[in-house]
Design brief:
Blueprint: H1 8-15, H2 20-26, H3 31-38, H4 41-52, E1 54-56, H5 64-80, E2 86-89, E3 95-102, E4 105-110, E5 122-127, H6 142-145, E6 147-149, E7 154-161, H7 162-165, E8 167-177, E9 182-191, E10 205-212, E11 218-225, E12 228-235, E13 245-251, E14 256-263, E15 273-276, E16 279-284, E17 289-294, H8 296-300, E18 323-328, E19 337-345, E20 365-367, E21 373-382, E22 386-395, H9 396-416, E23 437-441, E24 449-453, E25 469-471, H10 473-476, E26 481-486, E27 497-498, E28 501-505, E29 510-515, H11 518-530, E30 541-544, E31 548-550, E32 566-569, E33 602-605, E34 627-632, E35 635-638, E36 648-650, E37 654-660, E38 667-670, E39 674-680, E40 687-694
Parallel strand pairs: 18-25, 30-34, 31-35
Antiparallel strand pairs: 1-20, 2-40, 3-4, 4-5, 5-6, 7-8, 8-9, 9-10, 11-12, 12-13, 13-14, 15-16, 16-17, 17-18, 19-21, 21-22, 22-26, 23-24, 27-28, 28-29, 29-37, 32-33, 34-37, 35-36, 38-39, 39-40
Helix pairs in contact: 2-4, 4-5
């Protein structure tokens, strides 16, 4: 019996087992299969999740048809950047510098002494959707919105895992000897919905360490994924004797330390991103590289019991975190120094279903952590006492791909008895301290060459699992990243990405949303083309086709950098534009027409500083002052000889949509379907008002 002989109901049951890409393909087989797929809400919902970069929440009680309706409404609202659903979040406390935004929850610290610039006495959280009220009515009062957690101790930092565990982790300090500034650093684990110690934590209070602590001279970061709690402390105390940089991996359910890494150099790194519950990426400042560490074995290993006479696990017994793969960033020019690198990727990856402790029944879907965009800010000091700021965007999946290729290469070498060979390539890197390298070719991409430093030390009995494999920037970065020239003030707030979107409020009074979802871009371009309304045919729209375009060179000694607006130059020396591949890179998303060669040398791309009544958008239409859109398919180039040894090329496609905001925000943050606008006082030290814009309406 053939497939087409089955009734539609059975075909649907079979199709539900297929991957989203297969569902797209079977619609091309015949009209009947096309009708079956297009007329079934569950199958259409699966396809829409895949294209939108979302994952389903099986705990939500909504039927597939309703989930599909909500998802499509939100995607359309994001594309139009519809900000009509607005409310102001009332503040009933004086916010401190601590904040977090994830899983539909905004957290703000409270500082009781309003004149102070440091210190957080307690924290307040609010579920953002509750601020909009129900059925379109007015939101409830502030007393019923905010939940206060007061531990009676000073708070240093927080971490949230609301949707997966209903968990809030609060880092506190309390002085053992205040005269000597000797303090106990502890992690308090609470259930967010009740404010009580989390029932799944065997140790609701995890003691990190006793240290010399001076408020304002220590930064802490923690992230939670599955059973993993990753804790980073940078202690800048002037007389610290222990390692000032400590990264510790905890199993938060047992309270046991699983892996660690410590440095005596306080400038080593100050942020990280979890790629999975057992993989972390560290932006290392001195080497200007991303180190990817895998600690699955450490998580699975049973923790040794405390030594005789010790009440808790000794840090000396915790295994060290091993670097598996190193991804180099663009090479700096001599004299340029990285001062700081900060990164974030939201939402965090989830553990297996058995790890989750809190079923979220509200949200029908979430942004897929695997394809979420990681943002990396680089603050670089160059000679003559000036600095530059850059922002790099890369998807979590691109970093994981490089890591898994390194694992596959190790496995192949181990199985076939292959050892690294001395370098024999003419394009040997020129860095003096990298004089000894060993090259290996990747098993999947023959153009990928992993390197191993100090190849003379490789012996036949050496375990390659302990030897980091390195990829140069040119081998991994240009196709899968997008770089921007940025400004220092714009990098103050790090919660500016969620899923594959990045939000930025500009001094021009416009709110910009960047969408790096290659699948969604491809579908949108095709839909507009089928409607005979190609992108660029409407007021305020532009499309930058395949080609090479340049950022303007910057000069001067000021830290005030140019905005995220690109004035680009087409490179006439390059050959025709590349195509975007099936993953959304510049091999598959090319439009039918190639970029004209020998055309105008300089042309402007994106928003131009002209009045609303001005006409002319480059396509014969007046510019819409309310909404503008730019589709970027070309390769952008940053040329700053005082910073980089070579120009930085990046090609990850994106759609940039902007609208004018009538209010004076200091910054904009983003969660799943909510944009948060922040208003600050005159000194830009304290939040005075929080404005919420819900994109696409309620979720139920």
């Amino acid at each position: 019996m053939s497939l087409l002989a089955l009734p539609d109901e059975l075909i649907v049951q079979i199709a539900c087992l297929l991957a989203p890409t297969d569902l797209l393909h079977i619609q091309e087989v015949c009209l009947r299969l096309q009708d079956v797929v297009q007329n079934n809400a569950a199958l259409q919902y699966t396809i829409q999740l895949y294209i939108s970069g979302m994952i389903d929440n099986p705990s939500c009680r909504l039927v597939p048809a309703e989930r599909l309706r909500i998802l499509r409404a939100k995607e359309d609202a994001w594309r139009q950047l519809n900000l009509s659903d607005r409310t102001v979040l009332p503040l009933n406390h004086h916010p401190s510098g601590i904040y977090d935004l994830t899983g539909g929850v905004l957290l703000l610290g409270e500082r009781k002494v309003t004149q102070s610039l440091v210190g957080t006495d307690n924290v307040h959280t609010v579920k953002l959707h509750s601020a909009f009220g129900r059925n379109g009515g007015d939101g409830p009062g502030s007393s019923s919105l905010w939940r206060k957690i007061d531990l009676g101790k000073q708070v240093i930092d927080v971490g949230l895992a609301i949707q997966e565990h209903d968990l809030i982790a609060i880092v506190t300090y309390s002085y053992i000897n205040e005269a000597q500034l000797w303090a106990s650093i502890d992690i308090q684990l609470f259930e967010h919905s009740t404010g009580q110690p989390h029932p799944d934590a065997a140790q609701p209070v995890i003691h990190f360490d006793n240290i010399y602590y001076l408020p304002g001279h220590c930064s802490i970061m923690l992230e939670i994924s599955g059973d993993t709690l990753c804790f980073l402390m940078n202690n800048y105390f002037p007389f610290v004797t222990s390692n000032p940089v400590s990264l510790v991996i905890f199993d938060w359910k047992t309270g046991r330390r699983k892996a660690k890494r410590a440095y005596q150099d306080p400038t080593m790194f100050n942020s990280f991103v979890l790629l999975s519950p057992d993989i972390v990426v560290l932006p290392i400042i001195p080497t200007n590289a991303l180190e990817i560490c895998h600690f699955a074995q450490e998580l699975a290993a049973p923790a040794p019991p405390p030594a005789a006479g010790e009440a808790e696990q000794s840090l000396a017994d915790v295994p060290n975190l091993v670097t598996s793969c190193v991804l180099e960033l663009p090479v700096l020019q001599g004299g340029a120094i990285v001062l700081r690198m900060t990164c974030r990727c939201e939402p965090n990856p989830r553990g297996p279903p058995s790890s989750a402790t809190h079923p979220d029944t509200l949200m029908p879907f979430y942004s897929d952590p695997a394809t979420s965009a990681m943002i990396l800010h680089m603050h670089i000091r160059i000679p003559h006492n000036s600095s530059r700021v850059y922002t790099m965007i890369v998807q979590r999946s691109s970093l994981l791909k490089a890591f898994h290729e390194a694992l596959a290469l190790r496995r192949r070498c181990r199985e076939e008895g292959i050892l690294p060979q001395p370098p024999s390539y003419p394009d040997m890197p020129s860095q003096e301290h990298f004089a000894k390298l060993a090259y290996l070719k990747g098993p999947y991409d023959t153009q990928t060459r992993f390197r191993i430093f100090d190849w003379d030390s490789i012996t036949p009995d050496m375990d390659l699992e302990q030897v980091p494999l390195t990829l140069s920037w040119q081998d991994w970065g240009p196709r899968v990243t997008r770089w921007f020239q940025d400004e220092l003030a714009s990098t103050r707030w790090i919660t500016t990405t969620c899923g594959q979107r990045f939000v930025r409020f500009r001094d021009s009074g416009r709110l910009h949303v960047y969408d790096f979802n290659g699948r969604s871009i491809k579908r949108y371009l095709n839909e507009r083309k089928l409607r005979d309304e190609p992108v660029g045919s409407k007021p305020g729209e532009s499309i930058v086709k395949a080609g090479t375009y340049y950022w303007p060179r910057r000069g001067g000694d000021s830290d005030e950098e140019g905005p995220l607006e690109v004035v680009m130059e087409e490179n006439e020396e390059e050959e025709g534009g590349e195509m975007l591949d099936q993953d959304g890179w510049l091999a598959d998303l090319n439009t039918d027409e190639e970029s004209p060669q020998g055309a105008e040398t300089w042309h402007a791309v994106g928003e131009q500083p002209q009045a609303a009544e001005s006409s002319g958008s480059g396509n014969g239409y007046p510019i819409d002052p309310k909404r503008r859109m730019k589709v970027m398919l070309g390769t952008t180039v940053i040329r700053e000889d005082t910073v980089w040894e070579e120009s930085i090329q990046s090609s990850m496609p994106y759609i940039e949509t902007s609208v004018r905001i009538a209010e004076e925000w200091e910054s904009a943050l983003i969660d799943e379907d909510i944009i948060v606008g922040l208003k600050m006082d005159a000194n830009l030290r304290h939040i005075t008002e929080v404005v919420l814009h819900r994109i696409g309406g309620p979720v139920s």
